[in-house]
Amino acid sequence: MGSVSVVLVRPLAAAIGSAGLDAFWGATDLTPQMLADGDARISPAQFCVAWAEALRLTGNRALPLAIAGATPPGAFGIVEYVCRSAPTLGEALRQWVRYLNLLDDAVTVGLVVEGDRALLRVERESEAPAPASHELCWALVARHARELATRPFRVIAVELAHRAPADVAPFRAWFDAPVVFDAATTQLVLPASALDAALVSADPALLAILTRAADELAKQTPADPLLTAQVKRALGEALRSDDAGVDAIAKRLGLTGRSLQRRLEDEGTTFKQVREDVRRELAQRYLDDGLAIAEISFLLGFSEPSAFFRAFKRWTGQTPLEARAARA
User: Fold this and answer.
1) Could you give the CA distance from residue 70 to residue 255 in angstroms, rounded to a whole number?
2) The pairing of beta strand 41-42 with beta strand 108-114
3) Closest of 267, 266, 243, 264 to residue 255, by C-alpha
4) How many domains is the chain partitioned into structurally?
5) pTM confidence score
6) Would you say 159 and 190 are in contact if contact means Cβ atoms under 8 Å apart?
7) H-state helical runs in 113-168
8) In this structure, what CATH number is given to the domain that contains residue 126?
9) With contact defined as beta carbons under 8 Å apart, do 5 and 103 qualify?
10) Contacts of 15 (CB under 8 A, 6+ apart)
11) Residue pLDDT, tens place only, 233-277
12) Residue 100: CB atoms within 10 Å
């Protein structure tokens, strides 16, 4: 089913403004604290609802175009910086296709060249489509190509598989090209020759660094459900401050303790179990790093080393000293 980075939701929250955000949080089951966690991901269904609510609350069907025009450089993190550092527009688009899963792995996009046309095409749609997100995506591609390409850039056509809005004029004006709704495929049609255009932001040295980092991120497939993963990150920061109770972690995520417990139960776990898992994982890491037993006990939020010894024996069948000796 996939998941979507909260990085893609932040522009929606910014566009809605403070007056409508309470309704937005309520409809999407998100909080400002969750959006502040750059590693957090949400379900495609939440992303779909987020777009629907943003359009409803703003009353602006051309909202994707407004966001495309207002989004500052760097808003989409490492994926955007990889694209900006590429030598040509074509390479930038290939890198975007390659690393799109870091932002949204519920959708697959491909770049195809057919004769004198290049097609940036949605090859696999999300199980919970957010049609306006494709409008934003194509608008951002057009904007950045116009700004960064070293020669004039133009769009041949925009094709969108969803229904047309009441007024398509803003879309045609933005792209300065035909915009077709109810199309067979969602794709942005470009001149193939445009792919060879050099970018003013090209930086080969930075591109090499960023692609290595992006490759490492791409390997880190989250094993945990979405909220569980966020709770684990919050616990990792909170344990050492001895403020790792359910209410404290819930507050970090903008939830009540009861709501957090309920949502974890929906994901098939409990807060107690997640905290145990985090402590066990960190204990193993700290032992490998050579930290003193008393220091590990403190960092994991245990009241005294003996409590850590008992917990570790329960987790592994060994004492921390036995585990360290076995590793040595």
Assistant:
1) 30
2) unpaired
3) 264
4) 2
5) 0.85
6) no
7) 131-148
8) 3.90.1520
9) yes
10) 54, 58, 63, 66, 67, 70
11) 899 888 877 678 899 999 999 999 999 999 999 999 999 999 999
12) 16
